[in-house]
Design a protein that fits this description.
Keywords: Fatty acid metabolism, Ligase, Lipid metabolism. It is built from 17 helices and 26 strands. About 50% of the residues are buried. Among the domains are: about 240 residues, 3-Layer(aba) Sandwich (Rossmann fold); about 100 residues, ANL, C-terminal domain (GMP Synthetase, Chain A, domain 3), CATH 3.30.300.30.
């Protein structure tokens, strides 16, 4: 039945347009064009200049043959070009694929091929990867960004310098928003339970809403000054390139993390906000006191990944950093839940507050729901802080799905919820808290590592009979991979030899940091009992701490 509120009141061009976060940069340039947008060493660019460069980039990419729905892959640190591609690539209707700079060449080439990248924008530091990609993917167009080292264009067929590409673009190029906000805006690869990378596809609507949610969770003021300690290749920097544009703030770029440099930039640029994994927060919390001299303003920071220790949270508060704990996954645009603070907590001790802040919390403002449910019945678990279930999300801040993987997409969304694979409990106050990870993913320094990928590599060694990898608590990294091995009869191999073997196939951050030999605990059916291995590690580390 048609309601009187529907009859003759259909959507029109005048009252309904697709949401896109690209509009934030257009508004920033229009309203605050003369305000600072990007800081990188001595470089200073306004929003008007940044917008023009993004428009030129979109125009130039179109001239090279990139069209709506095509993939533009980038391998860049947190430098100005990385900010610009977040604006320019979606202006064209193309899909931005930010690649992890810490991955090995084989993984990166797989992603370029799987994502069908037409253009590869790569920092000159990673020229070896670019050369291999050019050799294996001859149709790939390479764009070299010269930052700390000059580009070697002669080594790549059809290569062009990034600044030359920008200069070739039309500053008056008329970009248009997506006709449908469900169109893809970004592609991000994440480790799956099998260790094979899966391509997570974001839509314009989700990126728009998560960018706004970031503002709401932080009560972020206009013209905030944001320091890029969080890699922009992680879930598009948790959507913060678009968040900062929405606030007409300042992107303070940082090529690589250095604790002293972070404090220097906070002081010199009056940084108000930054994000980081627990390892980043720990490094800053434990830095020498003299590095913080001269910083008198309050700094807001977000932390995600494996929950930081209450000690680190308390320490951040002591040094004047207002820490917000968020939770999410690549599939939900980074953070989609937040440990929202309550005024009543102010009466608690600092340690009690830190314990509360270490929880994963409640849904983001513009996410529909986060819950802990029985994965089979989809019934919510009791709010008793004890009954374990699977953490699930529902709402607009969820991916479109996995690229070219319909089975995995259907499985992830079964029952009308996104299944995180993380096991947790619902506390009496409605806040969620993680208890375990059903996917056996290890979160080390903010990086997701598949234990199965490491196990598969270990199994390639001729001396290994049985392998199991679990997360081992680590003060610096939060978690690191620990391998338990049974060797074949008569085999003899050293830890150093095994690590060298793994180094042939794995990125350095995925290497097992500890290897133990012996008979592994198994069930009656021969399944390795990883829970027992984790318990053994906890007991061992507990004795060592004592």
């Amino acid at each position: 039945m048609v309601s009187m509120f529907d009859e003759g009141l259909e959507r029109r061009e005048a009252n309904h347009v697709s949401l896109t976060p690209v509009d934030f940069v257009a508004r920033a340039a229009q309203v605050y064009g003369d305000r600072l947008a990007i800081v990188y060493g001595d470089l200073r660019r306004t929003w008007e200049e940044t917008y023009e460069r993004a428009v030129r980039l979109a125009s130039a990419l179109e001239q090279t043959g990139v069209g709506r729905g095509d993939t533009v892959a980038v391998l860049l640190p947190n430098i100005p070009a990385m900010v610009e591609v977040h604006y320019g690539v979606p202006m064209l209707g193309a899909v931005l694929n930010t690649l992890n700079t810490r991955l090995d060449a084989s993984s990166l080439v797989f992603m370029l091929r799987h994502g069908e990248a037409k253009v590869f924008v790569v920092d000159s530091e990673f020229s070896d990867v670019a050369r291999r990609a050019s050799a294996e993917l001859p149709e790939l167009k390479v764009v070299c960004v010269s930052d700390v080292t000059p580009a070697e264009l002669h080594r790549f067929p059809r290569a062009i310098d990034y600044e030359d590409l920008i200069a070739s673009g039309d500053p008056k190029y008329m970009w248009s928003p997506p006709t449908d906000e469900w169109e893809a805006i970004a592609l991000n690869y994440t480790s799956g339970t099998t260790g094979d990378p899966k391509g997570v596809v974001y839509h314009h609507r989700g990126a728009y809403l998560n960018a706004i949610s970031n503002i709401l969770e932080w009560d972020m003021a206009k013209h905030a000054i944001y320091l890029w300690t969080l890699p922009m290749f992680h879930c598009n920097g948790w959507c913060f390139p678009w968040t900062i544009a929405a606030r007409a703030g300042v992107n303070v770029c940082l090529r690589r993390f250095d604790a002293k440099m972070v404090y220097d930039l906070i002081r010199e640029e009056n940084v108000t906000h930054y994000c980081g994994a627990p390892i980043v927060q720990g490094a800053l919390a434990n830095a020498p006191e003299e590095w913080r001299k001269g910083i008198t303003h309050r700094v807001s920071t977000m932390v995600a990944g494996a929950a930081p220790s209450p000690t680190v949270i308390a320490r951040m508060e002591e040094i004047g950093f207002d820490l917000t704990h968020v939770y999410g996954l690549t599939e939900v645009y980074g953070p989609a839940a937040v440990c929202a603070r309550q005024e009543r907590w102010a009466t608690f001790s600092q340690q009690e507050i830190a314990q509360l802040n270490a929880r994963q919390g409640v849904r983001y403002h513009l996410q529909r729901s986060v819950s802990v449910m029985d994965p089979d019945t989809l019934a919510p678990v009791a709010n008793d802080g004890e009954t374990v279930g699977e953490i699930m999300f529902r709402g607009n801040i969820c991916m479109k799905g996995y690229l070219k993987n319909e089975y995995a997409t259907e499985d992830a969304f079964r029952g009308g919820w996104f299944h995180t694979g993380d096991l947790g409990v619902m506390m009496p106050d409605g806040y969620i808290q993680i208890k375990d990870r059903s996917k056996d993913i290890i979160i080390s320094g903010g990086e997701n590592i598949s234990s199965i990928e490491i196990e598969d590599t270990l199994y390639r060694h001729p001396a290994v009979e049985v392998a199991a990898v679990v997360a081992m608590p680590d003060e610096k990294w939060g978690e690191v991979p620990c391998a338990f091995l049974e060797l074949k009869d008569g085999a003899n191999v050293s830890v150093d030899e095994l690590v060298a073997h793994c180094r042939l196939f794995l990125a350095s951050f995925k290497l097992p940091k500890s290897i133990r030999f012996g008979v592994l605990p198994k069930t009656s059916t021969g399944k390795i009992q990883k829970g027992t291995l984790r318990t053994m590690l906890k007991q061992e580390l507990g004795r060592a701490d004592g």
